[in-house]
Amino acid sequence: MAPEGERYHPKDAVKAAINGTLIVGSAGLAVSAIQNTLTKRNVSAWGVFTRTGGTAALFAAMGGTYEFTRFASANLREKDDSLNPAIGGFLAGALMGIRSGSTPAVFGFGALTAVVLGAYDYTGGSLTGYKKDPEMDEFERKEHLRKNRRRPIEETINELGEGRGIYGPGYQERRAERIKENYGIEVPKS
User: Fold this and answer.
1) Going along 78-123, which residue ranges are E strands?
2) What is the DSSP letter of 81?
3) Where are the domains of the chain?
4) DSSP string for residues in 21-43
5) What's the DSSP call for residue 134?
6) pTM for the model
7) Are 58 and 28 in contact (CB under 8 A)?
8) What does UniProt give as the signal peptide span (predicted)?
9) CA triplet 143, 149, 152: central angle to 5 degrees?
10) Is 163 helix (H, G, I), strand (E, B) or coil?
11) What is the pLDDT of residues 31-84, one digit of tens each?
12) Rounded Cα–Cα distance for residues 106 and 164 (Å)
């Protein structure tokens, strides 16, 4: 059951399955087209469906199975957590194993896909890392980090020296003095 104060809202598993089938099936069709172009024999453009069409069908079945199972398990458990993508991933990966025809492959592909998709969802569903506060604007977060890690200009000048866009207070006067000492040229102070 959902925690107190939060109610679980059921999701449409059939609609998600249709969308998953179409999207992942389209990707499978692209992979099938690539396989068809890389064959040694010329099999015509229809080879995408006749010769390597099983790839497109497998992709479509995996996408539909994953999406349906993910939402159906969420609806049955009334929880939206990382176990749902893992269950969907296991069944989708098992379809890959069924194609090879051995039981260890079914369980192996299923377990691998379940672990990868469950871990991906658990870590925030992003390849760039887990977002700490989804309510905070990204620009504001970066501005806070810049202000939080800002160093005093004196410390930067002591470590790097002046020049290259880093100038401390009174730099023009010190520069004019150095040029006068070394070259004997008066530099107008601006």
Assistant:
1) none
2) S
3) 13-122, 151-183
4) HHHHHHHHHHHHHHHHHT-SS--
5) T
6) 0.64
7) yes
8) none
9) 115
10) strand
11) 998 888 888 887 777 777 888 888 899 999 999 999 999 999 999 999 888 899
12) 61
